[in-house]
């Protein structure tokens, strides 16, 4: 399976997966009035507005530069993964977590999403984000991790915990019943209080598809800098040494490709032994 990673621009916006194009969980200020929430999100927090997502990307591109990397399947040409990042001041929701705020010298990595069957694109996308930010002189990347609750954590005397909902089901929270089911899945008083504090409304929930698993961040070398049972904050330090390393690796990759092409060309033009002119 071949994957190519490139930066996102407005011309390729329409090629993004549907949920990525529409979800503005990170990008739109949830502290707006209830009437504004209805007009943007609908009555129960679906966080969908393709217009606002495109406008946000356009604004960040103009003011700050590249804010997303996309992974493209070499066989189909379809986008199968994406990673979004931006200065915390351009991400309204970054101030509303219990482990906020993001450090002033860091760029916030908001989400890394891959389509089913392309999970191996996630670390490749992260590497592309790191490479881009090192070249731009950014000192660190921070991200809010999501700690998922397993049935074992609920304890032997608690109510049985339902199996985690399928991602598609979680993403399409469009009614109060589905939101209540989601809250029961995370059932404890802490998560309810956190959700209400984050959104100032019990009817506006979390988009789990647009958050990064804490385990992925830990496995990728991020350090825990703000502990929390549900929303820990992580940090990855970037320095000039990393930039040098990425430049060398990129140069070596180009040399390998060039050598392979040269070898293939020589094999095509070589005259077989014993052949007469």
Brief write-up:
The protein is α+β, with helices and mostly antiparallel strands.
Structural class: alpha+beta
What's the CATH superfamily of the largest domain, by name?
Gcn5-related N-acetyltransferase (GNAT)
Instruction: Give the integer mean of the pLDDT values.
Output: 77
Q: What portion of residues is helical?
A: 25-40%
Strand content bin: 15-25%
Number of strands: 8
**H/E order of the elements?**
EHHHEEEHEHHHEHEEH
List the domain count as a whole number: 2
Highest-level CATH class of the largest domain: Alpha Beta
Radius of gyration: 22 Å
Oligomerization state:
single chain
| Count of separate DSSP helical elements | 9
CATH fold-level topology of the largest domain: Aminopeptidase
Distance between the termini: 43 Å
Shape, per Cα inertia axes:
globular
Biggest β-sheet, characterized?
A: 8 strands, mixed
Which residues form runs of ≥5 with pLDDT under 50?
33-45, 153-190, 195-204, 241-245
Give the name of the CATH architecture of the largest domain: 3-Layer(aba) Sandwich
Protein name: GNAT family N-acetyltransferase
Organism: Gordonia mangrovi
Strand and helix map with partners:
Elements: E1 3-7, H1 18-22, H2 34-41, H3 50-63, E2 68-73, E3 79-86, E4 106-114, H4 121-135, E5 140-146, H5 167-171, H6 176-185, H7 189-199, E6 212-213, H8 214-219, E7 223-226, E8 233-237, H9 240-269
């Amino acid at each position: 399976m071949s994957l190519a990673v490139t930066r996102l621009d407005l011309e390729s916006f329409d090629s993004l997966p549907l949920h990525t194009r529409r979800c503005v969980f990170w990008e739109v200020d949830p502290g707006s009035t209830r009437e504004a929430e209805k007009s943007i999100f609908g009555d129960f927090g679906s966080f969908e507005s393709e217009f606002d997502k495109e406008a946000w990307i356009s604004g960040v591109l103009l003011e700050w530069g590249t804010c997303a990397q996309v992974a493209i399947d070499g066989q189909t040409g379809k986008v199968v993964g994406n990673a979004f990042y931006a200065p915390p001041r351009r991400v309204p929701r970054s101030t509303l977590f219990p482990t906020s705020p993001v450090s002033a010298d860091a760029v916030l990595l908001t989400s890394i999403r891959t389509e089913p069957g392309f999970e191996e694109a996630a670390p490749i996308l992260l590497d592309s984000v790191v490479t881009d930010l090192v070249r731009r002189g950014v000192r660190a990347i921070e991200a809010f991790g999501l700690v998922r609750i397993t049935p074992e954590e609920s304890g032997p005397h608690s109510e049985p915990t339902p199996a985690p909902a399928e991602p598609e089901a979680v993403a399409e929270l469009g009614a109060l019943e589905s939101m209540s089911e989601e809250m029961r899945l995370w059932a404890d008083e802490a998560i309810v209080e956190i959700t209400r504090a984050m959104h100032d409304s019990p009817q506006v929930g979390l988009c789990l598809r647009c958050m990064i698993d804490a385990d992925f961040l830990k496995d990728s070398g991020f350090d825990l800098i703000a502990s929390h049972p549900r929303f820990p904050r992580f940090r990855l330090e970037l320095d000039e040494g990393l930039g040098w390393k990425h430049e060398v690796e990129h140069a070596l990759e180009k040399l390998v490709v060039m050598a392979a092409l040269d070898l293939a060309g020589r094999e095509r033009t070589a005259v077989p032994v014993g052949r007469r002119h």
